[in-house]
Design brief:
Chain lengths: 347, 324
């Protein structure tokens, strides 16, 4: 216990956005210090499993690994799918953040969890953080962290609506007076967009592309609203009929078509959140608008789409990818100041 | 529309963002009301942005968001407009109350981080001090050797012959009063000289040397006191004499056979200490090199026979050892 405390003195408080796609770590006073894909490459030698690479390096291996190496994404839909690998990944990241420390770090850690995650899922995240060497673990609900990070006035007695589109889930929440009034979570996010693009290309071009290629297409020409400038991209994929790689060109309208279903789900959830919000808060939201955060907010035209569908102003937060981690960092400061609990404390 | 090459001028006039947006809107032939409808904003807010009245927009997050969508609607680069707006806001915050969001955030970060760093340094210094003290302890200890502490410290590493039952019995009798006894006992030292009677050593139980038990908690003494062998004390009050001469400063402690600390003082160069009383004597010398000669019952004792620790020696002299 004492040793942990001493080690704690040499560790920084961390706010971790343990996302399906990317893991971000925010260190108080230093900002975002780590932004890596949540991917772990595992090599098997004589039945013994070993971590071969973590983060960006492992991501480059996704879909390109030899037989004895498998690249795993240990989180699915915002929650832990592979406990042991998640723990290893966290351990790696925590050490990476404390690279210059000569004592094994034992930081206080705040982790963001999906608002609709179950007790079991939360416990799994807490346990894996403790297993990775954390001294104390705090959990905060993702939309809350996102709202704090985006700069929403969460402590005011007025409603704010936040839509955080992550890799695995889209979190929608109405926040007032430091608390979540209404939260909804759909398991649609960046990953679903990628899958939709892969499916679309297979159906319409008879070609198979990998997830990484799909993600690249989404980043470069992805679009959520028709009537925006049309962009094109050259893609190579394996033609299913001929069995050889073929090149073809995709444009943003095709991607819009591919994403239609996922986008409709998000819009529908936003609408139902608005329907269910208390009238006073609904009027606040109508006055100010909806705030988008998360990687999905960077999808071109998504704010237009939601704005047109709901008839409300929609604002994309500055630097939407890091909102959750930054918000978590601010929440850690509140812990020290004895602020009201927007998080659950777990020993 | 195209006049917005806004990265040139450092000093941007207040309301620059609004003016540019308004100009672009008028070029595009849009009414304020029409634009407000497209943006799903109240016309009052659009007007506030155009007039540079940023206070009436709920927060910076929304202000930037509105400006961004406004710019896109009227066909100017949103990133450029945001850059202009940020500079404007920085000026406002700089002149107003110097409380830009970043500064507030930094102000929050820095003291906390500094505190942590200070705490970290303090704890490092603390740990270093503790380690230093622990390292130096063996050297410092003998010099300020107090009455009781050394007894505990040397437990077990000096093996001296002890007449176990005898000592325990006597100790348990008089331990509580031992400090008070020092004065009269010291007085006795002066009175008695080396010609004190020789004790009848032969009467001692013939048991061989017991392992050293130099440290005796009072309770243990009482426990053993309950065990019968009190006889030796009453039967054979051994008497022995001790004579010490010094050539330098040296701390001397002598505990006699009755458990009384009869001598506890600093002897200086040329001093001569004589004592006779019930044996065995438990002797502690702070600086063995400062002892010129030690005679026990008239015979010189070779001090190098006893293990010393940083010049400090603790041993026991029993009359029996010297009788044969």
């Amino acid at each position: 216990m004492l040793i942990k405390k001493i080690r704690g003195l040499f560790s920084s408080d961390l706010s971790i956005d343990l996302g399906t796609a990317n893991t971000l770590i925010f260190v108080r006073g230093r900002g975002i210090v780590l932004d890596e894909p949540s991917v772990v490459a595992i090599s098997t030698h004589n039945g013994q499993k070993k971590v071969a690479a973590v983060g960006g390096e492992a991501k480059r291996m996704l879909g390109r690994t030899p037989g004895n190496i498998t690249a795993i994404r240990p989180l699915k839909d915002g929650v832990i799918a592979d406990f042991v690998v998640t723990e290893k990944m966290l351990q790696h990241f925590i050490h990476k953040v404390h690279e210059n420390s000569f004592i094994t770090p034992s930081p206080r850690v705040l982790i963001c969890v999906p608002s609709k995650s179950t007790q079991v899922e939360r416990k799994a995240i807490r346990e894996s953080a403790l297993g990775a060497g954390a001294r104390e673990v705090f959990l905060i609900e993702e939309p809350m962290a996102a709202a704090i990070g985006a700069g929403l006035p969460v402590e005011e007695a007025s409603g704010s609506m936040i839509v955080d589109i992550g890799g695995g889930t889209t979190e929608i929440a109405i926040i007032s007076l430091n608390g979540i009034v209404y939260a909804e979570s759909v398991r649609v996010g960046g990953d679903k967009f990628d899958e939709a693009i892969v499916t679309y290309v297979r159906r319409n071009y008879g070609s198979l592309i990998g997830d990484s290629t799909a993600e690249r297409i989404k980043h470069e020409i992805g679009c959520a609203y028709e009537g925006l400038e049309v962009r094109e991209i050259d893609v190579r994929g394996r033609n299913l009929a001929e069995g050889v790689p073929r090149q073809f060109t995709l444009n943003s309208n095709e991607i819009l078509e591919a994403l239609q279903e996922s986008l409709a789900q998000i819009v529908q959830t936003v609408k139902s959140a608005l329907e269910q919000s208390p009238p006073e808060l609904a009027s606040d939201i109508a006055e100010r608008g909806i705030v988008l955060t998360g990687g999905g907010a960077l999808l071109r035209g998504l704010d237009y789409l939601i704005s047109e569908e709901t008839g409300l102003p929609v604002v994309v937060a500055e630097d939407p990818l890091t909102c959750v981690a930054r918000g978590g960092g601010k929440a850690i400061e509140r812990i020290d100041k004895g602020g009201i609990g927007t998080f659950t404390h777990e020993g | 529309m195209t006049e917005a090459n806004g990265d040139n001028s450092q000093n941007i006039a207040h309301g620059e963002t609004g003016r540019r947006l308004k100009a672009a809107r008028e070029t595009a032939g849009l009414e304020l009301q029409a634009l407000a409808d497209q943006l799903h904003l109240r016309p009052a807010i659009v007007r506030a942005i155009e007039e540079g009245d940023y206070g009436s927009v709920p927060s910076e997050l929304f202000l930037k968001g509105y400006v961004r969508s406004y710019a896109r609607h009227v066909g100017i680069s949103d990133d450029e407009m945001i850059a202009v707006l940020s500079r404007e806001l920085a000026i406002i915050h700089g002149t107003d109350d110097s409380a830009s969001d970043e500064r507030v955030a930094d102000g929050r970060h820095l003291p906390l981080e500094e505190n942590r760093r200070r705490r970290r340094v303090m704890s490092l210094v603390g740990i270093a001090l503790v380690v230093l003290v622990l390292l130096l302890l063996p050297f410092i200890w003998p010099d300020n050797g107090s009455d009781e502490a050394p007894v505990e410290e040397t437990t077990g590493d000096t093996q001296q012959p002890v007449e176990l039952p005898d000592r325990q019995a006597s100790r348990s009798d008089s331990r509580g009063a031992s400090i008070d006894d020092i004065e009269p006992a010291l007085g006795q030292v002066e009175v008695l000289d080396e010609s004190a009677e020789q004790p009848s050593v032969e009467q001692e139980p013939s048991g061989s040397r017991e392992p050293a038990v130099t440290d005796q908690p009072a309770s243990a003494g009482q426990e053993t006191a309950a065990i019968p062998p009190q006889a030796p004390v009453s039967e054979s009050p051994e008497e022995a004499s001790l004579q010490l001469t010094f050539n330098d400063d040296c701390w001397v402690e002598v505990v006699n056979g009755e458990g009384n600390r009869v001598i506890a003082r600093l002897a200086s160069e040329g001093d001569r200490i004589e004592y006779s009383g019930p044996a065995p004597f438990e002797i502690l010398l702070g600086a063995v090199s400062a002892v010129d000669q030690l005679e026990f019952m008239g015979e010189p004792v070779n001090l190098s026979d006893y293990p010393s620790r940083a010049g400090r020696v603790r041993f026991q002299l029993a009359a029996r050892d010297f009788s044969n």
